[in-house]
Write a structure and sequence with these properties.
The protein is mainly alpha-helical. The chain has helices at about 1-20, 45-50.
Amino acid sequence: MRILVSAAAAMSASAFAANAQGLGRGKGNSGPPPVENRPKIDEKAYKAALDRIPVPDEKYDPWGGARASDPAKPAKKKN
């Protein structure tokens, strides 16, 4: 009896997951919008926007805040 109940629970759980992802009954995915409704890309405006982006003076360091600003100095070895 336990096996039957656990199998039924597993099947219903997978059915709920499929329904939540839109794979169950219903309309489903309608696909991309038609080509006619997409806005036209203006190449001149795109290139002008790229030209307005300033060039940074120094290279960006994403880990700059995680480590000390001075590089670690190696310890001197004692003889």
